[in-house]
Write a structure and sequence with these properties.
Helix content is 42%, strand content 12%. It has helices at 2-15, 18-29, 38-46, 56-75, 80-87, 90-106, 149-161, 180-189, 205-214, 228-235, 240-253, 272-282, 308-324, 335-347, 366-373, 409-415, 417-423, 445-452, and strands at residues 119-123, 166-170, 193-198, 216-222, 257-263, 286-290, 328-331, 351-355, 358-361, 382-385, 390-392, 402-403. The strands form two sheets. The chain has a ten-stranded mixed β-sheet with strand order 7-6-5-4-3-2-1-10-11-12. Strands 8-9 form a two-stranded antiparallel ribbon. Helix 2 (18-29) crosses helix 6.
Length: 490
């Protein structure tokens, strides 16, 4: 274990070397005649995707990047050929470009910073055929100012230019908008990983086939109960349970990577193990349990939020399911990173869910990497786009930080005060500010904002808050149920 720790530490020191950072910055700024940067060309060379453009600088940069990748494979016990084959996938290569550019610009930071989001979640339309009690959008009808198809295609161009790896269509119900397939296919052709979050009721066999043809890689279907009564009490429409279950079957049988998404509340907490059993029978490969955030319609059911102890026990249950190897069990609760770290010491496994996008086996390297990759990703790893082009740090955090009709994504991402605050864990307040897991977790910033009106406040849903209740004496729960104002923090 000490040798493994030393290899990771040495590799991180190598990445943070000022000379290497200067080389990465230079190679990311300079372009070949082909229009690609030297850094992009170096990754092309690494995977054998060479063009006819040659220069001495390209050869030098390619050699340095190859060395960095090979040292990384050694440090993390990853097979070199597997790594190179992975980088042949366009969106993985975009991700590595983003990481390297971040190291060149900011160094090896805790948590790490990147010059563009890995993931953009796009609330594609406000139209929806269900009336969910916990909907953060209060979705029902399309907004009158929703983006045109041409504006949407232009946004995809920006995501591509900024090396955004993944685009998740959400809503409302994204499948209700006619231009969804055109825009999804355009995003796929640009090399982005394309996923869809849906209520599942519209996933007919024909729709699934069209999604697959358009290049959709991943489908996340909301299911909030193992029984019709529980699910439909959330979703507000009779018959939605059967339609959703059939949609899940169609997605699995159609060959899409299918995930079930659960929003955990007191109403369905005891049914979650049954949902796992149902998911396994349906052939679903992943379940993600969403933190309940009292925003949008969720403000009206804040009393159904889990207690810190209930949430902690749920996260431990999810780790147990993930460790079983039968299904991937994730959560949007950033405390899950801490729970994985703690449980891995107990069970002898080395699993970590650094974000709600993935879980990884780090082969004894969890402790060394958790501070860099774990925790809340709002404004740090991802951001959200609203149906009218407004940008927010998170779909659950209704703070407008920019407008894509008037600003570029790059300008918004780099210059927003809110986004930059969220990237600096040393700005956290209350219990979160001095928690030893603040870089691993950082607390859910959307929950802090929903409860206290302050995105730097402590997360009231964390069990560690119970250890030091006096730390929150300055924070008062918001008394209003009115929609949270859309404004920048002053």
């Amino acid at each position: 274990m000490k040798a493994e720790s030393s290899s990771v530490t040495s590799f991180l020191s190598f990445l943070g070397n000022p000379l290497l950072r200067s080389i990465i910055r230079f190679s990311g700024d300079r372009q070949l005649k082909s229009g690609k940067t030297y850094l992009e060309a170096a990754l092309d060379d690494l995977v054998g995707d060479k063009d006819s453009t040659f220069s001495l600088n390209r050869t030098v940069f390619s050699g340095i990047i190859r060395l960095a990748v090979e040292l990384g494979c050694i440090a993390f016990n990853v097979d070199r050929e597997d790594a190179i084959n992975t980088l042949k996938v366009p969106y993985f290569r975009k991700g590595l470009l983003n990481v390297l550019s971040g190291i060149g610009e900011y160094g090896v930071t805790k948590p790490y910073r990147i010059p563009a989001p890995f993931l953009v979640v796009w609330n594609y339309t406000n139209a929806c055929n269900l009336r969910c009690r916990h909907c953060y959008q209060r979705a029902e009808r399309p907004r009158p100012d929703e983006l045109t198809t041409e504006e949407r295609l232009s946004i995809i161009d920006q995501l591509d230019e900024n090396n955004v790896s993944a685009l998740a269509f959400s809503g409302g119900e994204p499948l209700m908008r006619r231009d969804f397939f055109e825009v999804a296919e355009y995003a796929h052709d640009k090399g982005l990983q394309v996923s869809v979050a849906t209520n599942g009721t519209l996933l007919t066999k024909d729709v699934v086939a069209r999604m697959k043809k358009a290049g959709v890689d991943y489908v996340e279907v909301s299911l909030d109960g193992a029984s019709k009564e529980t699910h439909e009490s959330f979703r507000g429409v009779k018959g939605s349970f059967d339609a959703t279950i059939q949609g899940i079957r169609n997605s699995v049988e159609g060959g899409l990577y299918t995930c079930i998404a659960i929003t955990a509340t007191k109403l369905n907490l005891n049914e979650i193990p049954k949902i796992f059993e149902l998911a396994k029978k349906l052939g679903v490969r992943r379940i993600i349990v969403f933190n309940f955030i009292p925003t949008g319609r969720g403000e009206d059911i804040v009393h159904l939020d889990l207690s810190p102890t209930e949430r902690e026990n749920l996260l431990k249950y999810l780790y147990k399911e993930m460790a079983s190897g039968q299904i991937e069990a994730l959560s949007t609760a950033p405390q899950y990173s801490r729970v994985c770290l703690q449980q891995s010491h107990i069970g002898g496994l080395d699993l970590l869910s650094p974000t709600h996008f993935a879980a990884v086996n780090l082969h004894g390297r969890t402790k060394q990497l958790a501070d860099f990759i774990g925790g809340c990703g709002a404004g740090r790893l991802y951001c959200a786009i609203q149906p009218n082009g407004l940008v927010t740090p998170c779909v659950f955090m209704p703070i407008v930080v920019g407008d894509l009709r008037r600003q570029s994504l790059k300008e918004i991402w780099l210059n927003s005060k809110v986004m930059n605050d969220l990237r600096d864990r040393d700005r956290l307040e209350g219990r979160c500010s001095h928690c030893k897991y603040k870089y691993v977790c950082g607390g859910c910033r959307a929950r802090a904002y929903a409860y206290y009106g302050d995105y730097l406040a402590p997360d009231p849903g964390c069990v560690r808050e119970l250890e030091e209740p006096s730390a929150n004496f300055l924070y008062k729960i918001k008394a209003t149920k009115a929609e949270v104002p859309l404004m920048e923090r002053k």
